[in-house]
Specification:
The protein is of the alpha+beta class and 155 residues long. It contains six helices and five strands, in the order ββαββαβαααα.
Length: 155
Amino acid sequence: MKQAFELTVNGGHVRVETHPDTSLLHVLREELDLKGSRFGCGVGLCGACFVQLDGQVVASCDTPIWSAAGKTVVTVEGLAPGDELHPVQRAFLDEQAAQCGYCISGILVSAATLLARNPAPDEQAVVEALDRNLCRCGVQRRVVRAVLAAAEVTE
């Protein structure tokens, strides 16, 4: 049976009617047309679907909508203020840190969350923050370099 759920997504209040066990990822992609978060593994292990939920990085594919009710969600689309790119997004472009791009939205969310908590991380802190994000293309070195470059801009 469908129920109504209210939450804040990328700064805006939204109300959706869906089954309580519907994944947050499904709501974001299919109900709210936010396609940045991607379906990868479906069990929260790859990071392609990562979003911020009340400031914490979560796998939206295995987060039921009932658990997001009343909370604040930030997707990759919500990282940038207005028309400007978030420093992490700009650094990823400058460092050419993406290859196929499938994992990048989740990595960007994880990196932005790290920089919000620790504006001057060292390389080890970046590696640890991105440990749950899988990339099959082998761009991990470029990704770490981009996050460190973004940290220089945000300091």
